[in-house]
Amino acid sequence: MYGLLGLPVDAVDFRTLIRAMDTAAAKREPLLISTPNVNFLIKSQQNEAFRDSMLLSDLCLADGMPLIWIAKLLRVPIHERVAGSDLFGRLKSRTENRLRVFLFGGTGDLVERVGAKLNAERGGLECVGVLNPGFGSVDELSSPDIISRINASGADLLAVFLNAEKAQAWLLRNHHSLTVPIRAQFGATINFEAGTIRRAPPLLRSTGFEWLWRIKEEPHLWRRYWADGKALLQILCTCVLPLAITARLTRQRAEFAIHAVQHDERVTLSLSGSATSNKIDSLLPFVRQAMKESKAVNIDLAGVHHLDSRFFGVLMGVRRQLARAGLSLTITGVSARLRRIFRLNRFEFLLSDG
Q1: Cα(102)–Cα(184) distance, rounded to whole angstroms?
Q2: What stretches of 186-311 adopt beta strand conformation (E)?
Q3: How sure is the predictor about 353, in pLDDT bands with cuts at 50, 70 and 90?
Q4: What angle do CA 202, 55, 341 make, to 5 degrees?
Q5: Residues 6 or more apart whose Cβ sits within 8 Å of residue 308
Q6: What SS3 state is found at 219?
Q7: What is the mean pLDDT of residues 206-222?
Q8: Is 79 exposed, middle or buried (0-12, 13-18, 19+ CB in 10 A)?
C-alpha cells in the first residue's frame, strides 16, 4: 500500500485483485474494495467520513488515469488503472470460479434487467438477488429487512450502485452486519451494463479523456467535472509539483533503524534515518507484537530525515490494524520540515490521531 494525496492506494493489478476476491469468497472473509478516482480524491479532502471509508477499506485501487499520472510524478509504483466497470466486466467474462452476486441500488428496474442478463449469459457472475431500495438516508437503507434480504441471498459479491458518498457510507455503516464477503461500490457500471449509457471507447479511457465522453452521454456531469478539474489543478500546483521536485532533489539516504521502548499500556517506536520503500516494512513486526500484547503504539519521528509514499502507506495500514483491534496510534517528534511533507502529501490528519 502507498499513500497518494491523503488516500491509500494498493499497487495491485487485476489478476492479483481477482485472486484476492476468490480467496475471500472461499473463506467467507470480509473484503471491502474501494476504487478512488479524481472525484473520490476531491471529496476525500472535503469529507472526513468519506475519506475514512477508503482508509478502512481492505483494498483501494486507482480508478482514473489522472491518479496514475500523479503516481508516476511522485514515483509511486502504480501502473495499471483498476476501474470498477472493468472489474465487473472481467468477472462476468470468466469461465471459472463463478461468483454469486447481489445487485443493490441503481434506478428504476436496472438491477432487475442486469441481473436477468447476467443469468442468461451464464458467465462468471450468477445473480442471486437484486434490490433497488429507492431514495432514502443511509440509516433508512440499512434497515434489518434490507440487510437480512442481502445476507439470505448467500452471495459472494455485493455490488452497490449508489452515488459515491452514500455507497461508501452505507458500506461502512453495515460492515459488521453484512455476511456477503466481498463488497464494492461500482457506480455507473449498472448503466453501462444495462445499456442506458454507452461507455467511452478504450482509447479515450486509456488516454484520460473519458470525462469528455461522459459529458456527451450525461451533459449534467459537466458541473462535477469542472469543479473537480479546478480542485485538481490547485492540488497539482500546491502539492504534487513541490513533492515531485523535492523527490528529485533529495539525495540523503541515511540508514533506517527502529528502537522500541516498552511501557505498561503502549510501545514507543523511535524511527531514525530514511523511512522509505524497502525499509519501512521492518516496522510491521514491532506493530504485530504490540497488538499481541494489546498495547497502543506511539511512533516517534524525531530522528527521521526522509520519508516517502510507502511510509504513508505503511502508516495507514498500521492505523487500520490498530483501530480494528481497539488500539490507538500516535505520532510524535514531527519537525517543521516533516510536518510540511505530511501537509503536502495531504496526510496531516494522521498527526491529530490520539
Answers
A1: 11
A2: 257-262, 266-275, 296-307
A3: low
A4: 95
A5: 75, 247, 275, 276, 277
A6: helix
A7: 84
A8: exposed
197 or 148, which is more confident? 148
Cα four-point dihedral sign 213, 218, 223, 224:
negative
Lookup result for grid cell 471459472: 96
pLDDT tens digits, residue range 116-173? Answer: 999 999 889 999 999 998 888 999 999 999 999 999 999 999 999 998 899 999 999 9
Take residue 261 and report the three cell numbers written for it. Answer: 521502548
Q: In angstroms, rounded to a whole number, what is the distance separating the alpha carbons of residues 329 and 316?
A: 10
Helices (DSSP H) in 138-221: which residue ranges? 144-152, 164-173, 189-194, 202-206, 210-217
Highest mean pLDDT among 22-31, 71-80, 183-192, 209-218 belongs to 22-31
Q: How far, in Å, CA of 111 to CA of 266, rounded?
A: 49
Amino acid at 334: V
Angle between helices 164-173 and 48-55 (to 10 degrees): 60
Q: Is the pLDDT of residue 31 over 60?
A: yes
E-state strands within the chain: 2-4, 7-9, 31-34, 59-60, 99-105, 125-131, 157-161, 182-185, 257-262, 266-275, 296-307, 329-332
CB neighbours of 145 closer than 8 A, spacing ≥ 6? none
Given a cut of 90, is residue 200 above it in pLDDT? no
Other C-beta atoms within 10 Å of 290: how many? 25
